[in-house]
From TrEMBL:
Protein name (database record): Cytochrome P450
Transmembrane segments: 6-27, 324-348
Coiled coil: none
Residues that bind heme: 470
SUPFAM superfamilies in alphabetical order: Cytochrome P450
Keywords assigned: Heme, Iron, Membrane, Metal-binding, Monooxygenase, Oxidoreductase, Transmembrane, Transmembrane helix
Entry annotated with the keyword Ligase: no
Protein family (similarity comment): Belongs to the cytochrome P450 family.
Species of the source: Aspergillus sclerotioniger CBS 115572
CDD domains, alphabetized: CYP67-like
Cofactor(s) essential for the protein: heme
GO MF, one example: oxidoreductase activity, acting on paired donors, with incorporation or reduction of molecular oxygen
Highest rank taxon of the organism: Eukaryota
């Protein structure tokens, strides 16, 4: 009898998993079969898109396919668009599309600004944080970025001799790792008034804390990218996602390891939030994003009823607060770090562009300035053009930001798309639309200058577009502008291997590999190298050099060159 029950359940499961999607595909109620697919199975299952995501080059493959097809079916109920004119229809201020169910699946116990689906709730949350993210207020926190730039340059100064000949004989610097330390330290300070200390200690080891207070030492980047890698591959199963996560955590698979390491990232945020919350409960009003998250300028609470200052906060409330703070430290460190990496990579690959940019910066900067004031460089047209062009050709977040059409359907590119259909456009694909960007694979900052540059802006979706555009774009530009201007003014850097092609793995963001550079301090720089007292004693604590393989170059590195 039990055997019959088991067999019946198996047959029902097979019917639901295999036969039902096939029946839906041939019935084609929505009329999606007319669109070409990324795979012959894509109309039946999301597995081809999951496999494409697991390969780490999803957007590149979509860009290749979109050269032939303006619209692609990437799943049973999902369309990808390759024509830049679709941006307005999908993401514009007047769009009727809402965020896709993917965001609900990735949300924690309490949705934050990045994953909230309801438009009115998003408007409420964005209004709460908009003043904190306004450029005028961000410039008031410039001193925090200046502090991190000075610490970073203090490290670089000890590796770059003062020769003036370029390509100095000092240590090789992993630009990717060190500038990631910079963004992680900066956003922790700006967001939670916290000091991670990565630039001082030379690595990203930090404390992760569980909700019940157990702590351990983890690698920030390893935890963060492990979590996102697992999510980016499994989330496209939609209804099966949460079950797959539970199974993956129990079965001896690669995903169990990824999710296990990813839990450490939640713990990092919990630890930082716990410390900041204690300061808040003690009545300290600090100028950071956390303060804006907790209460408005008149002191009234914004998100959660935490009660009187000093009251005990429940574990559930801590979990919700942690989820709210994730967007502050996650998006603020990943995308900007990738943008800074890509900008330097493209500049070093194009010496003529670098020379022109350095000339523009040197005109406004004093010889002895370590961190150039933002006010001096924020309006430099070629600097902004270089940043935008690097983010165009190598967007930090290239994946299709999915939206869902309204129940009644809507028009996209003058084509009717049925209701509750997932629609999206990759920034990597959009930025390669030849009808908008001539020679899209060519790094040409000049395209952003003058009136023509203004005409291109509606098709530049590195920070998304419309009402759901990235609220952190101002702080990203602030960090990029100060750091890139300061380093090219102070140093003559070059790639260790000029022929190197930097590799990147795409999950929800791009995750570039190491970027080994070398160089020297420009001879006109006369600042004293011993002014960085905060790292004066660090050399004594370094472990012996290790060797790593980067492209075809063996890199000898100290502990903080990783």
């Amino acid at each position: 009898m039990y055997g019959i029950i088991v067999i019946s359940l198996v047959l029902v499961l097979l019917t639901w998993v295999i036969l039902y999607p096939i029946v839906v595909y041939f019935l084609d109620v929505k009329g999606l079969r007319r669109y070409p697919t990324i795979s012959f199975l894509a109309g039946v299952t999301n597995i081809p898109y999951m496999i494409l995501s697991a390969g780490g080059s999803r957007s590149k493959r979509l860009a290749e396919l979109h050269k032939r097809h303006p619209v692609l079916r990437i799943g049973p109920n999902a369309l990808s668009f390759g024509d830049g004119r679709a941006i307005k229809d999908i993401y514009g201020h007047s769009t009727k599309c809402i965020k896709d169910d993917m965001y609900r699946l990735l949300a924690g116990s309490h949705s934050h600004l990045a994953d909230v689906v309801d438009k009115k709730e998003h408007q409420r949350k964005r209004k709460i944080l908009s003043s904190a993210y306004a450029l005028k207020n961000l410039e008031g926190w410039e001193y925090k970025i200046v502090d991190k730039v000075s610490k970073l340059c203090g490290r670089f100064d000890r590796c770059c001799p003062v020769t003036g000949e370029g390509g100095g004989d000092g240590d090789i610097i992993d630009w990717r790792a060190w500038t990631n330390f910079f963004t992680m330290d900066a956003i922790a300070d700006i967001g939670l008034n916290s000091s991670l200390g990565f630039l001082e200690q030379g690595d990203d080891m930090t404390i992760s804390e569980s909700l019940d207070g157990v702590t351990r030492l983890v690698s920030y980047r390893d935890c963060l990218h492990s979590q996102i890698t697992a999510q980016s591959q499994l989330v496209w199963t939609y209804g099966w996602y949460k079950s797959l996560v539970r199974w993956s955590r129990r079965l001896p698979t690669r995903y169990r390891e990824l999710f296990s390491r990813g839990d450490g990232y939640d713990g990092i945020v919990i630890h930082q939030v716990r410390k900041r919350l204690q300061q808040y409960q003690e009545g300290k009003r600090l100028e950071d994003f956390f303060q804006a998250l907790m209460e408005s300028k008149d002191g009234s609470p914004n998100y959660l009823p935490f009660g009187e200052i000093g009251a005990e906060i429940s574990i559930m409330q801590r979990r919700r607060l942690k989820d709210l703070c994730l967007v502050l430290v996650n998006a603020g460190s990943i995308s900007t770090a990738v943008a800074i990496n890509n900008a330097m990579y493209m500049l070093l690959k194009h010496p003529g562009v670098l020379a022109r940019l350095r000339e523009e910066v040197d005109i406004v900067a004093d010889d002895d300035e370590v961190s150039i004031p933002y006010d001096k460089v924020k309006n430099l047209p070629y600097l902004r053009a270089c940043l935008d062009e690097s983010m165009r050709i190598l967007p930090p977040t290239p994946f299709n930001l999915p939206r869902k059409t309204p129940p009644e359907g809507c028009e996209i590119l003058s084509q009717w798309v049925p209701g509750n259909t997932t629609v999206s456009m990759s920034s990597y694909v959009a930025h390669r639309d030849e009808k908008v960007f001539s020679d899209p694979e060519v790094f040409r900052p000049e395209r952003w200058l003058g009136e023509r540059g203004k005409e291109l802006q509606p098709y530049f979706i590195t920070f998304s577009a419309g009402a759901r555009g990235c609220i952190g774009r101002n702080i990203s530009y602030l960090e990029q502008t100060i750091l890139i201007a300061s380093t090219i003014h102070r140093y003559d850097l070059e790639l260790v291997d000029p022929s190197m092609e930097q590799t990147s793995y795409e999950h929800l963001n791009m995750n570039p590999g190491p970027l080994p550079v070398k160089g020297d301090i420009k001879p006109v720089i006369v600042a004293e190298l011993d002014i960085f007292d905060v790292i004066e004693e660090q050399e004594a604590s370094l472990v012996p050099p290790v060797t790593m393989q980067t492209s075809n170059v063996l890199v000898k590195e100290r502990r903080y060159f990783i």
